[in-house]
Amino acid sequence: MSLALRSQRWVLYGIIVGIILAFLSVRLFGEAMLSVGWMGTLFLNLLKMIIVPLIMASMVVGITGLGDVRKLGRLASWTVVYYLATTALAVALGLLLVNVMHPGAGVELVGAKIPEHLSGRETTGLTDILLSFVSDNIFKSMTELDMLPIILFSLLFGAILTTIGEMGKPVIAVFEGLNEAIMKMVHVIMLFAPFGVFGLVAARFAQAGSIGGLVGSLGRYMAAVLVGLGIHGFIVLPLILWIFGRRNPFRFLGNMAAALITAFSTASSSATLPLTLECVEERNHVSRRAAYFVLPLGATVNMNGTALYESIAALFIAQAYGIHLTFGQQVVIFITATLAAVGAAGIPQAGLVTMVIVLRAVGLPLEGIGMILAVDWLLDRFRTAVNVWGDAAGAGVIDARVASGE
């Protein structure tokens, strides 16, 4: 069993123990379990520690993988359009569902404080959103985890590297090595996850004014995520595949069954990649050129399920804290979740890392992640399956577009 899968199993054990002890503490010792919150704080700090190098390295590697951006042909152009469009649709669907279902309503967090910069925040306008993409000091943005300027800088930097020929290759190689090293760091940090999850979940349950209210709210949160993933996976992506790929989406989906089951089992789109390539090329008869370009890149940068989950989770946490996010702030979440999905590694529970990015973008409390960790291990499997399905559908669409010459 791989290191990632072993760590995921221990994360689950940590969640179970944390929930049991937190529940008992509320019943028997009141808020006593708040004392273990330091382990959750340490875990969050470890995640925050790797955010900047992770997002920069993964985005630079992703954009340089397209080759010279000045010479993007139909294959690369359609790939970029498909990735951005489907990810944006997934985020928009998530925001719509969470605004309709209000899964975080009714959760009363004892002692929870709304951050000062949010409690009296005025409406965020379009110019504020546009200005937030550019920083006058990128290093200051890094230290403050101000993610939108970092994302824009990384995309521009990666694009420029593809245009300077031989001089850019050593720099690209450095970022590829950095990206690989950061992925290994994620695996190592996840070894501490059982203890961090225990601290976060136990402290959050102990802090909740009503365990029943929190459990019920988590059920509504899970329902919102699963409904969103279901709509995106069984309606949105099949329609795109049918209209733009001119293929029978249900037959295509059936031929992907082995890869999707593996994705659900491993919670890793990267680990599923060999089987995804086989199902797409041999069973769905997508050209080798399209499959071997679209799928490896998609396993790194195309995360529809993860993006949808992050948008729902962010608003759920805001609702649980009683924080009203304006339309402008939700637009920031839309943009950040869409772009942060590019930096989500194809490994188990990597969405937890990019979740920090989305919360930081609008200043939501990172401690709120503790509420969703109790069910994240299960939702992670569903969203990974949707991630892989989105990559496969993309290969079918792009193969049809390139073959038709459009």
Describe the 3D structure:
The N terminus is likely disordered. It is built from 18 helices and no strands. It is mainly alpha-helical. It has one domain: Proton glutamate symport protein, CATH 1.10.3860. It starts with a helix and ends with a helix. It is globular, with a radius of gyration of 21 Å. 77% of the residues lie in helices and 0% in strands. Helix 2 runs parallel beside helix 7, helix 3 packs across helix 16 and helix 15 crosses helix 17.
Task: Output the CATH class name.
Answer: Mainly Alpha
Shape: globular
Helix content bin: over 70%
Rg on CA atoms, Å: 21 Å
What is the CATH architecture term? Orthogonal Bundle
Residue fraction in strands = under 5%
Do you know the CATH topology? Answer: Proton glutamate symport protein
Which ranges are low-confidence, i.e. pLDDT below 50, for 5 or more consecutive residues?
1-5, 110-125
**Mean pLDDT, nearest integer?**
77
User: Total number of β-strand segments?
Assistant: 0
Keywords:
406 residues, single chain, disordered N terminus, Proton glutamate symport protein, mainly alpha, 0% strand, 77% helix, globular
What's a quick, concise take on this entry?
This protein has 18 helices and no strands. The chain is an all-alpha fold and 406 residues long.
Q: What is the element layout, followed by pairings?
A:
Elements: H1 3-29, H2 37-64, H3 74-101, H4 116-119, H5 126-131, H6 138-143, H7 147-161, H8 168-191, H9 193-207, H10 211-245, H11 249-255, H12 257-266, H13 269-283, H14 288-301, H15 304-320, H16 327-340, H17 351-361, H18 369-404
Helix pairs in contact: 1-9, 2-7, 2-8, 2-9, 2-17, 3-10, 3-14, 3-15, 3-16, 3-18, 9-18, 10-15, 10-18, 12-13, 12-18, 13-14, 13-18, 14-18, 15-16, 15-17, 15-18, 16-17
